[in-house]
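FIELD: query
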Amino acid sequence: MKSTHRFSALALALLCLLPSMLSCGKKGLSVDKEQALTNLQASAAQAEAKKDALKKEQIAANKAIAEQTAAKPAESKPAVEEVPLENPDEYAAPAKTPEVYDPAAENRALKVFGAAVSDGEYIAVYGECAAGALVSVKNDQGTFTVQSFGGNFAARVKNPAKTASLEITQSANGTQIGDAVVWQGSVQQPDYGGDWGVWLGGDNQGFFHKMIPDFTHTNLLDTATLDSIRTRYASRTEALKSVGDGCEMIVLLIPSAMTVYPELVPAEVALPGEGESRFDQLAKVLTEAGVTVIDVRETFAAHKNDALPLYYRYDSHWADYGSYLAYVELFDYISDRYPDAAPRKFNEFTWEWGYYTGGDIPYYFDIDHGGAIYEYTYLRKMNFDPIASVKGLIRYTDGSSLAYRSYSDEIVSGKTYNSGRDKLPDLYVYRNSYGAGIYDLILERSDKITFNPTFSYTYNIAQIKKTVPDYVVYIMSEWDFGNIIDN
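FIELD: result
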């Protein structure tokens, strides 16, 4: 600290990370799903035992702190300004331009990778096509279209019989490109449970079924739960004031793709809820408890049509542009106290477009367990020379994969990284798999930082005091709000 300035919920989290641990390069990798799941169950049991042991230490410390501070009312914080930057255009991508078909440059053949049950009477059909083409899939229920994204397509097709006999064509400006392809294959019927079932929306975008209650506002928190959250976090914010010369809690709340792109959700799946959402409730009650809440929903809404997408289409996580915008919000706030921690501008990074595998949506559709499907997207690279500790962090499993290294990775649970730059803040970070998309940026703007994954660690004031941070930061996506609500 510087004076100047959960098989359980855990097992489910591990299942979400399965594609990260099994992703591969272009040659592919054959995976025995049953054996992989068995191995994951064993790993989950070991990690759960570790978490239970830690809780024995945590409960006593947290209870003592809560008893000391519960009687003190929390000072409610104002909402963090959404666009506080002096020149916001320097921290954002340009506007999106339409993808155009170029016959002279196109060599991608029209083909289908596979199909799987999506939702209700609909199936998801994944394939490859000409970049810029409009893909039409025809069966006895009608014709269903989707625009190519970089020469890939994921079409939502009505098929109540769950059998596929499909005729696929592609066109540009109303003219068919090449011959039609007739595909007859089996429709996968994956069964990963309600939390990890996936479905396909518009514009090639995949989603998890578990996000529907948040979208429809049918999972609102009751008064007792809200009171419990308020009490717990008020005691924590009060206790953190005595850490060093005063530690502040920041919660970075990240919306799901469904929240940001409601127009991609078909009416047959769900209609957007009205009034207050669980997201609204959580942001409000944490603010009332004295937590600094950075809610990036407005920022994401303002940039949802930029040239770089906020989320992957074939993966449930945010893409690197989404994590960059959240980083800008976080460190623009922190830089009020630590000016040297001001976020880096958009042009200080290179955004490398290409074909990347490892997405968890095709995985949970049981269409791709071996790296056969590549999404056309981008990865963020630093075009400046970072410090050695940042260079040592590998965010992705390999250079052709968009699967995060988020469970068994360079970010060791409880490890503290020191950069020797005392004009930057010290942070203690709790994060889920979304956090893996941003931790190099956080380390690059910090002096000393400790990372802990929320799927194996819970809040522990005794551990936090050992590192004497300036900020305790939660990086929490909407699908994992339970880690705030229950812990």
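FIELD: remark
The domain at 111-212 is CATH 2.60.40.10 (Immunoglobulin-like).
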